[in-house]
Amino acid sequence: MTVGAGVAAATAYALPANQPPERFYRGGEQIARLRGVGRAQPRTPEDWVGSATTLFGEASLGRTVLPGGTTLAAAIEADPVGWLGEQHVQAFGADPALLVKLLDAGQRLPVHAHPDVPFARQHLGLGHGKTEAWLFLEPADVALGFSRDIAADELARWVEHQDVDAMLGAMHTLRARAGDAVLVPAGTPHAIGEGALLVELQEPTDLSILMEWRDFAIDGATDGHLGLGFDTALAAVERHGMTASQVEALRSATAATTGELLPAAASFFRAERTRGSATWDAGYSVVVCTSGEATMTSETGRSLRIARGSTILTAHACGVWDVKAQPGFEAIRCRPPAS
Questions:
Q1: For the chain, how long is the longest CA-to-CA vector?
Q2: 13 falls within a domain
Q3: Are residues 266 and 240 in the same domain?
Q4: What is the DSSP string of 158-169?
Q5: Are 178 and 136 part of one and the same domain?
Q6: pLDDT value at position 40?
């Protein structure tokens, strides 16, 4: 039977790594260790898990290919209700409205920001911006938000002259711990620190405005402004200063938190941490196992073993999942926005 007949949507998949090659920053070894697959290829710091999204400017790179050769995007388009559920389709159509990545910062990432929905709609004709959230598996310092108001001409001057010290000197430092969940609203300037390993949830786009590219393997002057020019692109950056307490408030969960990790982000995406056996309601989701192992059994009879480093894609048509865990099991279930 075909994908459109609902067969693919009535099951679930254990997904292999999906790591676009030759990214402009280093990383990948921590993802390889998490997945237990040996050494990483050079410059593969991102694993696009259950992705119906392409890299910016690419026709297909970044999209998940399911067993049998069908892309996830095509499978969802053929059976949106089976994959996403009727309520989601009524709200968002055949758009899963979610992108999940594993990210391994083998070096500090450059200072950058992502546009919000109104900017992306006006300037790029897109329905999503790129609000994101970080679920830390390994600790790291991150530069997050400006600590004072920054004038437009000052920001433009920093970017033109690549005055990285001035940029970083005007930003807060958040010391993220393993287990923390941090929400990053679109527009917020940020730079993830070296050593971070995280599960990243985001709106399903690859829209980044680079303010820093010195010492990175990218021509930021050409490729850092989404083809809009910096005069336009930098208008998407939030230049208002944040207080230290406002930055701290973006940390919505810690290692002690189970259940919902991102309560303020439900209009963009949802994430739940499970420890031990559980029952998961029906729904499209990307599951990342961070420790231990368990057996997942759906009400349609599909059974999957999930262990540390596993990434599982589930469709709404699978129904309710019964998760029988071994000691030490922990997983993060990433889901689309509430509909």
A1: 60
A2: no
A3: no
A4: HHHHT-HHHHHH
A5: yes
A6: 87
Tokens found for residue 316: 């709404």
Coil/strand/helix, residue 233 = helix
My answer on whether 121 and 156 are in the same domain is yes
Q: What is the mean pLDDT of each run of 10 residues along the chain (339 residues)?
A: 47 94 97 93 96 97 95 96 96 98 98 98 98 98 98 98 98 98 98 98 98 97 98 98 98 98 98 98 97 96 96 96 98 96
Position 222 in a domain: yes
Q: What does the pLDDT read at residue 3?
A: 40
Q: What is the CATH number of the domain that holds 209?
A: 2.60.120.10
Q: Which residues of 100-116 are buried (b: 16+ CB within 10 A; e: fewer)?
A: bbbbbbbebbbbbbbbb
- Enter the pTM of the model: 0.96
CA 188 to CA 249: how far, in whole Å?
14
In this structure, are 214 and 292 located in the same domain?
A: no
Q: Both tokens of residue 91?
A: 């709200």
Burial 37-68 (b: 16+ CB within 10 A, else e): eeebeebbbbbbbbbbbbbeeeeeebbbbbee
* DSSP notation for 86-99: HHHHHHHTT----E
| Per-residue tokens: 44 | 């593969």
Residue that has been written with the tokens 């189970």 in this structure: 258
Nearest-angstrom CA–CA distance, 198 and 204: 17
Could you give the 3-state DSSP secondary structure of residue 205? Answer: coil
User: What values do phi and psi take at 193, rounded to 5?
Assistant: -80, 160
Where among 207, 237, 253 does a domain terminate? 253
40: β partners:
none
What is the domain range of residue 149?
19-63+99-253
Instruction: Compute, in degrees rounded to 10, the torsion defined by CA atoms 68, 74, 75, 81.
Output: 180
CA distance 96 to 48: 14
Residues 192 and 180: their CA atoms lie apart, in Å, by: 14
